[in-house]
Automatic annotation (TrEMBL):
Keywords: Cytoplasm, DNA-binding, Sigma factor, Transcription, Transcription regulation. Pfam families: Sigma70_r1_2, Sigma70_r2, Sigma70_r3, Sigma70_r4. Its main location: cytoplasm. The lineage of its organism: Bacteria, Bacillati, Actinomycetota, Actinomycetes, Propionibacteriales. Residues 1-49 are annotated as: Disordered. This is RNA polymerase sigma factor SigA. It is found in: Cytoplasm. Sigma factors are initiation factors that promote the attachment of RNA polymerase to specific initiation sites and are then released. This sigma factor is the primary sigma factor during exponential growth. Residues 132-202 are annotated as: Sigma-70 factor domain-2. CDD domains: Sigma70_r4. Interacts transiently with the RNA polymerase catalytic core. Residues 156-169, 325-351 form the RNA polymerase sigma-70 domain. It comes from Actinopolymorpha rutila. One of its GO terms (molecular function) is DNA binding. It comes from the Bacteria.
């Protein structure tokens, strides 16, 4: 039974267009016609040795500076398949999966005389899978082109689409009668759109919400053509069968962040961030006034005793900006809370005296 399957797979493989290009290998020759190696030369310092640029740029054979062009050239070497060839490859893949299941099945290892046959079928199935994948890579490229300019690079879209193509090869059922490209298109599109939902946005939005945002965008475009104006949230809500509040919420989710470095104007001399006020920035005039106030306060505190000045500084947070309670100050000086209150009251009375308060009247009203 297995031998018969192997014979059928061999015949199918021979009829398939798989072939490998073989080229002559270049032999290594000597450096002169006499066959003698060139004489060794010492290192000679030349004027061009200080140059930063290399005299000759070494490139890999066939490679260019455009990775997309290289990729398209590479996948274009594999011929497209017709319906019969797709079915043949699918049968070989199915036989390979069957062999893998037998080799690693829980029912027990196969007979020794069948192990080699199963291993051959498994390897042939892997080769058929790779051939079916490589022959349809151009389908991924054609579908990925439709999603460019939406936040993901072209090669990234192709990569995600290839993952969907692999899934399609694994799930393809040739017995249904439809072409593989028809079946694979859905899987490729799903892989690309899911990747865009997860990766294309700066702030990730769940996939189901991305679908709602896209649906809202389609309805907005259609109603703009029908009405000749932008639709109101109420009109969109009626069309989408949701509340106007939900429409406004979805519209907020669909907004894209704007970089603060976005250039403005034709010359690009300014950026968007230049127009945004820094709410935490200190006004220069206020900073100067605050500095002068600090100097005046400290000059007044110098007229008090060390304990009185310390209590006032801690009470109002003049040092670190954190006001202390009476209990906290009492622990610092080793006295009771009541004693600190008395010192504070006495000190504030001294500060209100015209001899001291007159200096601060331009900044504070102590009355």
């Amino acid at each position: 039974m297995v031998a018969q399957s192997r014979t059928e797979v061999k015949n199918s493989a021979e009829s398939s267009p798989e072939s490998a290009d073989a080229g002559p290998e270049a032999g290594a020759g000597t450096s002169s016609d006499t066959g003698q190696p060139p004489p060794e030369e010492g290192f000679v310092l030349a004027e061009g040795d200080d140059a930063d640029e290399p005299e000759q740029q070494v490139l890999v054979a066939g490679a260019t500076a455009d990775p997309v062009k290289d990729y398209l050239k590479l996948i274009g070497r594999v011929s497209l398949l017709n319906a019969e060839q797709e079915v043949d490859l699918a049968k070989r893949i199915e036989a390979g999966l069957f062999a893998v299941e037998k080799l690693g099945g829980e029912s027990g290892a196969p007979a020794e005389d069948l192990v080699a046959e199963y291993e051959w079928l498994a390897e042939d199935g892997r080769q058929a899978k790779n051939h079916l994948l490589e022959a349809n890579l151009r389908l991924v490229v054609s579908l990925a082109k439709r999603y460019t300019g939406r936040g993901m690079g072209f090669l990234d879209l192709i990569q995600e689409g290839n993952l969907g193509l692999i899934r399609a090869v694994e799930k393809f059922d040739y017995s249904k009668g439809y072409k593989f490209s028809t079946y694979a298109t859905w899987w490729i599109r799903q892989a690309i759109t899911r990747a865009m939902a997860d990766q294309a946005r700066t702030i990730r939005i769940p996939v189901h919400m991305v679908e709602v945002i896209n649906k809202l965008a389609r309805v907005q475009r259609q109603m703009l053509q029908d009405l000749g104006r932008s639709a109101t949230p109420e009109e969109l809500a009626k069309e989408l069968d949701m509340t106007p509040e939900k429409v406004v919420e979805v519209q907020k989710y669909g907004r894209e962040p704007i970089s603060l470095h976005t250039p403005l104007g034709d010359d690009g001399g300014s950026e968007f961030g230049d127009l945004i006020e820094d709410s935490e920035a200190v006004v220069p005039a206020d900073a100067v006034a605050f500095r002068l106030l600090q100097e005046q306060v400290y000059s007044v505190l110098e007229t008090l005793s060390e304990r009185e000045a310390g209590v006032v500084s801690l009470r109002f947070g003049l040092g670190d900006g954190q006001p202390k309670t009476l209990d906290e100050i009492g622990k610092v000086y080793g006295v009771t809370r009541e004693r600190i209150r008395q010192i504070e009251s006495k000190t504030m009375s001294k500060l209100r005296h015209p001899s001291r308060s007159q200096v601060l009247r331009d900044y504070l009203d102590l009355t």
